[in-house]
Design brief:
about 120 residues; mainly beta; eight-stranded antiparallel β-sheet; two-stranded antiparallel ribbon; 10 strands; globular
């Protein structure tokens, strides 16, 4: 049995889904990229925090063992309530086993696209 690498608790303080994209081949989006090096599946629990409203809590996502999963934040929702576009937010990811979390944003709001990526902040 392969013991997973990483941590169980991750934070991403800067989330923002742009409300529009410039005409062209790319659409603005964000992804939480998860690497699960364990043989076991990882059960993730997302909480989305906002400046001016209660969080969206307990959004569940499964990542199979020895796999990666790219989760577009625009697909995350709780009881039919998605993350709103054009609103700043933050992400907390809690896993039942150690994982590695990376965050990426493609900003295609203008013709000159920008891609940003960073590892999440791991809490030990």
């Amino acid at each position: 049995m392969s013991k997973g690498k990483g941590e169980k608790h991750w934070l991403i303080p800067d989330g923002f889904i742009p409300p529009s994209s410039a005409p062209g081949a790319y659409e603005s989006h964000e992804s939480v990229c998860v690497l699960n090096t364990s043989n076991e599946e990882a059960l993730l629990k997302f909480t989305i925090f906002f400046e001016d409203r209660d969080p969206l809590e307990d959004i569940l996502v499964v990542v199979p063992g020895r796999r990666t999963r790219h989760i577009r934040t625009s697909t995350l929702s709780k009881e039919g309530t998605p993350i709103p576009v054009g609103v700043p937010y933050a992400i907390e990811v809690v896993s039942d086993i150690p994982i590695i979390v990376q965050y990426s944003r493609l900003d295609a709001t203008q013709a000159e696209n920008a891609l940003m990526t960073t590892l999440g902040f791991a809490i030990k």
